[in-house]
Design a protein that fits this description.
single chain; globular; mainly alpha; two-stranded parallel sheet; about 5% strand; 2 strands
């Protein structure tokens, strides 16, 4: 296995799929084109690039540090279309279901790694807090931490 952590910009994939594909709907009329497109792109990425761990990360809701640093950031960007916004949560759920199979051992791995070095324990706590505060989903945080634990501490 290649010792690689593959992080995907989920928001970029989401917009790309939404605007590239024709309008697709579920049998009950809900839009599904972006979901289908992103899952297809992730499947292809996994087939083309071997990785020890993968995570798909989405932009956080609301104001970010970028608006403070550059007030004109996204100033002329239109709001997200409702047909796209309604696909975000179902897409995240689908991705998390896929990721969960790769992070079942996360608590064992992290606990083992943290108990080896108390100084590193604080770094993990800070890393978790920073990732969650910056919009990473819990499953993505687990993948990042599993990768870090497997590559920072060896038996």
């Amino acid at each position: 296995m290649v010792n690689t952590l593959l992080l995907v910009d989920g928001s970029s994939y989401l917009y790309r799929a939404f605007h590239a594909l024709p309008e697709l709907k579920s049998p009950n009329g809900e839009p599904t084109g972006a979901i289908h497109g992103v899952l297809s792109m992730l499947k292809r990425l996994a087939a083309d690039h071997e990785a020890a761990a993968r995570a798909c990360v989405f932009d956080a809701k609301g104001k970010t540090f970028r608006e403070d640093a550059y007030p004109a950031y996204k100033a002329n960007r239109p709001s997200m279309p409702e047909d796209l916004a309604s696909q975000i949560e179902p897409l995240k759920e689908a991705i998390e279901k896929k990721l969960m199979s790769s992070v079942r051992e996360i608590s064992r791995v992290i606990t083992k790694a943290r108990t080896r070095d108390e100084d590193q324990s604080g770094k993990y706590d800070t890393m978790v807090q920073n990732l969650l505060e910056n919009g990473y989903c819990p499953s993505c945080v687990d993948v990042v931490l599993k990768y870090a634990a497997n590559n920072l501490w060896k038996d």
